[in-house]
Write a structure and sequence with these properties.
With 140 residues, the chain is mostly beta strands. The protein has two helices and 13 strands; from the N terminus they run E-E-E-E-E-H-E-E-E-E-E-E-H-E-E. The strands form three sheets. Strands 2, 3, 4, 8, 9 and 11 form a six-stranded mixed sheet that branches. It has a four-stranded mixed sheet with strand order 5-10-7-6. It has a three-stranded antiparallel sheet with strand order 1-13-12.
Amino acid sequence: MIIPLNVKYKERLMPNILVNVFGSHAPSSILVVIDTGSDITILSHKDALQLQVPTKGMAIIKNVSGISRGTLALCQYNKKLIFYLKKEDQTSLKIEMDNLYVSVDPLACSITIIGMDLLKNNNLRLFYDPQGEAYLEKLD
């Protein structure tokens, strides 16, 4: 099963996809990048607001280092979010996230990052050719 990805994000070579997300509130579509350098999936502050995921008053449980802005303070969201990724045949792959990290700083993480945890836990393999092709492949 193939899930096509876009090759560029804001003129940068970063595989990305528009994902439909369902949580405890209304569904929403968010753009996410696939980051093989990230061990964890991180919901951006902007997307957390859009999805009505509360961050105010949540304890910072983890600080992670990135290559661009120093450290990123994260809180943990332990309620289920369901990601739907559109497959090549226009049906959707359902991915349930029971545990997710959320950026508490609105400026530090401008887009949601799908990390290696989501790829490993869902048997997904990334193919990326910056010349124009990118996709996730579901291994059974």
